[in-house]
């Protein structure tokens, strides 16, 4: 049975900060951000958006009525969830209008969560071929104002429908994975910003790629010549390149290097203007590759490297399907990104400092400037309140 990605789409907030302006405000040479780490814009979530609404908006743009009836499993990967008990998947289930006969839960392992969800989805479809699974990857990356990690923040969500006989990509059976208990990045429950050992995390990311690539090569017998492109989890767009280049130069032919490096650049175009979205970063990269590369043919094999600090890594692969381009939402995504509004560094800082009450008091939020269909409208009795504006029309 062929199982894989039937649909894929993303949603990001309608606000962003220009990285050159952020660099100037922080007394940093702008090229250190735009060239050094490869970031141009950083998505900023307004106070009326959280990980639930970002994911719900991504799903709302993607699903039709047939999908909603067929989906019987919703898996939500995040490392910036909004509740220690109730899963974000349950909120999305109601906001999007999915069938009640469904399983819904949240999964966490840093930026690896959505990949874990996809692998679980494959098993579910193998047992239930007529079902579909909605996998959501949604995060708001926060390191703190003036922190070393500030320039690798971002916000957004990717939604994927996993099914039998997928229209976009069949996921192959062989994969390689690796777990090691390390402290390269973490966020305790008492903190709303993350902690990171940047140099150590970069080293581990590279080591994990080398490890799982070697394992995958031994399992599959495949080499770089068998791949049209490789996509990476990209907390910043130069990170994947740091891991890829040494191994590619050691093992790949000149032709392999030119092809894979060219397609790598296509795969990071969305990430450059969105920033780090944690669990969704790999899949935003995949979308960028598919929607920015005209020459990718059906039958092409794409490699995917997923890394979640702490740490778990996996390398797996997919085969593009006939006419896959007809099932992408390239124009919608292009228009969505171009319609965003640039805000000043001062506006970004003001948004960053806003906090919801933690004492059970009521707050009502003004959503009139938020163009998203699904928004956070407030809190009452320690409960977040959401609205789907399309139901009010």
From TrEMBL:
Record: active site: 79, 111, 233
GO molecular function: hydroxymethylglutaryl-CoA synthase activity
Keywords: Transferase
Gene3D superfamilies, per the entry: 3.40.47.10
Protein biosynthesis is among the record's keywords: no
Annotated Hydroxymethylglutaryl-coenzyme A synthase N-terminal domain residues: 2-165
Residues the entry annotates as binding (3S)-3-hydroxy-3-methylglutaryl-CoA: 143, 242, 276
Domain Hydroxymethylglutaryl-coenzyme A synthase C-terminal as annotated: residue spans: 175-246, 258-353
Stored CDD domains: init_cond_enzymes
GO terms of biological process kind: acetyl-CoA metabolic process
Lineage: superkingdom: Bacteria
Database matches in PANTHER family: 3-HYDROXY-3-METHYLGLUTARYL COENZYME A SYNTHASE, HYDROXYMETHYLGLUTARYL-COA SYNTHASE
Family assignment from sequence similarity: Belongs to the thiolase-like superfamily. HMG-CoA synthase family.
Name of the molecule in the record: Hydroxymethylglutaryl-CoA synthase
Classification lineage: Bacteria, Bacillati, Bacillota, Bacilli, Lactobacillales
């Amino acid at each position: 049975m062929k199982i894989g990605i039937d649909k894929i789409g993303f949603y990001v907030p309608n606000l962003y900060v220009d990285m050159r302006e952020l660099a100037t405000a922080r007394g940093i040479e702008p090229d250190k951000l735009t060239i050094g780490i490869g970031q141009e814009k950083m998505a900023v979530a307004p106070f009326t958006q959280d990980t639930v609404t970002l994911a719900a908006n991504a799903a709302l743009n993607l699903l039709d009525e047939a999908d909603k009836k067929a989906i019987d499993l919703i898996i939500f990967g995040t490392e910036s969830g909004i509740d220690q008990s109730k899963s974000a998947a349950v909120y999305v289930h109601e906001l999007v209008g999915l069938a009640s006969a469904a399983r819904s839960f949240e999964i966490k392992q840093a930026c690896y969560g959505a990949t874990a969800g996809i692998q679980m989805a494959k098993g579910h479809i193998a047992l239930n071929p007529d079902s579909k699974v909605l996998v959501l990857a949604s995060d708001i990356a926060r390191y703190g104002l003036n922190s070393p990690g500030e320039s690798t923040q971002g916000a957004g969500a990717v939604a994927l429908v996993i099914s039998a006989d997928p229209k976009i990509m069949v996921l192959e059976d062989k994969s390689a994975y690796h777990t090691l208990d390390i402290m390269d990045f973490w966020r305790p429950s008492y903190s709303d910003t993350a902690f990171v050992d940047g140099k150590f995390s970069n080293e581990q990311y590279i080591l994990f790629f080398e490890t799982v690539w070697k394992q995958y090569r031994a399992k599959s017998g495949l080499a770089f010549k068998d791949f049209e492109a490789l996509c990476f989890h990209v907390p910043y767009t130069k990170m994947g390149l740091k891991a890829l280049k040494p191994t590619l130069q050691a093992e790949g032919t000149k032709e392999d290097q030119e092809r894979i490096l060219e397609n790598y650049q296509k795969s990071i175009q969305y990430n450059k203007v969105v920033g780090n979205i944690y669990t969704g970063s790999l899949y935003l990269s995949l979308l960028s590759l598919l929607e920015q590369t005209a020459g990718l043919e059906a039958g092409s094999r794409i490699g995917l490297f997923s890394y979640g600090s702490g740490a778990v890594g996996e390398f797996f692969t997919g085969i593009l399907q006939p006419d896959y381009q007809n099932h992408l939402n390239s124009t919608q995504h292009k228009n969505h990104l171009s319609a965003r509004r640039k805000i000043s560094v001062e506006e970004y800082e003001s948004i960053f400092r806003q906090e919801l009450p933690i004492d059970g008091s009521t707050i009502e939020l003004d959503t009139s400037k938020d163009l998203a269909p699904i928004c956070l409208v407030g809190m009452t009795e320690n409960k977040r309140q959401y609205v789907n504006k399309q139901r009010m029309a």
